[in-house]
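Service request form, structural biology core

Requester: graduate student, group of Dr. S.
Request type: structure prediction, single chain
Budget code: on file
Notes: please return the result as structure tokens.

Sequence provided:
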Amino acid sequence: MKKIYSLFAAVVLTASINAQTTVFNATFDDVDGTGGSDGNWASSVAGTALASYTTGGTWDLTRAYKGGGCLKMGTASVLGVLKTPNITLTGSGTLTFRAAAWNGNNENTTLKVSVTGGTLSQATVTLVKASYTTYTINVTNATGNVVIAFEGNAAANGRFFIDDIKVTTATMAVVDATKEKTGLVKNTIVSNELIFGTSAKISVYNTAGQIVKTAEVSDNSRLDVSSLAKGAYVVTGLVNGQAVSQKIIKK
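Core staff response, request fulfilled:
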């Protein structure tokens, strides 16, 4: 038991506090055309070709047109492809963007998304005609220089609008739970169950800062942790509007 308590006192765990660091952000606010973000989605909007774009780096454009603070990609017969500049990202991150399909009767609503220098959690999204949707895709295995490509699904009627492309990474914060005397968890050395001393929405983090359990608990309620591997964890919760944390050892 003494050995366990020594480990308990020595370990300082890292746990995510859900903060985000933006590593790439393209708003296209300097694109002075018509269509898309101004609420127009068809007819003669976005008629001016955009030969090059260098805000935030050098973009690779195939059949790009100026929208109203956004880009329109493709024509009725030629595929549009948009590739970002190099994005500095190592490990994992989150891609978000807004996109919409051209408002045509036969318009294809599938948008392909791909990456070089990493892996995406999905390769396509389904667009809505004449209305923006915000899409979120996870990026993993990023090698440092990442390029993300957006491409219509077909040359014929694969036109799309795109805006607000952003890549973020999670910011990790160190939680020294030995300083917290919260009474959130009654039994800090456990085999199968955590017993709670107050009502809270809780998350359990491992030493890599990953959430391994979440729950909404109350005084004297129990949470099964028998499936967790042996080791040290941090339980965080929101109690009366205050963020608290407590270290536990799973035997």
